[in-house]
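Journal club side-thread
Mid-discussion, someone asked how the predicted structure for our own chain would compare to the paper's figures. Pasting it here so we can look after the session.
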Amino acid sequence: MRLPDPDGSRAVVVGALPGVPAVRDGVADLVRILTSPDGTGLPAEHCAVVVDEPGLGDRVATAAREAEDLLLFYYAGHGVADARGNLHLTLPSTDPRLPFAAVREAFGRARARHRVVVLDCRVVDWHLAAGQLDVADTVTLTATTWHGTAPGALTGELVTLLTDGDAEGAELLTFGHLHRRLRRLLGRRGVTAPGRDTELLALAPNHAPRLPPEDVVAKYAAHVRAWTRSHGPDHPDVLALRDEHAHTVGEAGSPAEAAYLYAALADDAARVLGRHHPQTSRAREHHASWTARAGDTVGAARLPSVGLTDRTAVTRVGPRRVGRP
C-alpha cells in the first residue's frame, strides 16, 4: 500500500451546503488533510474546492483527463432526482445542478489508476436514484439516504479518522479500511462498487498509536463475531471483516493461520459473491501470499492452479488456528 502520487493525482471537493456548519467545517478540514504534507500531500493546485460553480461538470472532466494516479470526487450536499429519475447533485444556486451522469462519464473516460467517489448527502427520491451510484472501476463511499444521517456525518467521521488515526489500522489508512471503519461508526451500510483494489492506495498516514498486534487480532475477531450475529455469515460486510481479521492474524506473527483463514474466506467469497469477484480474487492472492510467508513456497506456487477447496498447501504447514472468530 502507498499514498497517492502528488503530481499524478487530482481531487475535486464540493461543499454545497455552506450554511451547514458540519459540511462547511468538515469540507475545510478535509481539504486541509488532502493538501497537508502530513496527510495526502496533494499540491493545492491539484485539489479544486468548489461551493457554487456553473462549470463544475467541466472541472470534474478536466480533473479526470489530468489524473494518472488518484482521481477523487467528493460531494457534500443534497441530491435530487429529476422527472426521469436521473440523479442530480445540487449546488447553493437553484440552477445549475450537476447531473451525476456527468461524473460517471468523466470517471469512465479517466486514465487514473485509482478512482474514488465520495457522496455525503441526503437524496430525495432515493428509490429512483439508488441504482445510479455504481461507477465503473471506481470505489464509491456513500452516506446517502432520504432519511437518517444528515449531510456532513460521513465527512466528520472521515476527518476524525484521518486526523486522529485508528489504532486498529495499519501504518497507512487505505480506502478499504476507511470504508469498513466508517460503516461501523455510522451504523449503516455504505456502498463500495467492485473494481479497483481498495487496499492498494491509502488516503493518509495513520497517526494513532498502534495497539499491540494480539489486541488488534482480538478486536477484529470480536467484530467478526458481532457482525456475523447481526448480519449473518454470508453478508458482504462480514466477509470484508474476515479479510481484515485474517490480515491482522498474519501481521501478528501467525502466517499459517492467516493462510488458513484466507483459504476459508476464498471458499465463502466464491460461493456468495462469485469466483471472479474482487473479494474472491483478493482472498486467493492473500491465501497464496501467507502460505509462502509461512514457509511453504512450493504449495503457494501451486495454489493458482488448484481448486478453492484444496487446502493441501495450507494444512501441510500446520496452522495453529489461533485468534479465529
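Post-session note: DSSP finds twelve helices and nine strands in the chain.
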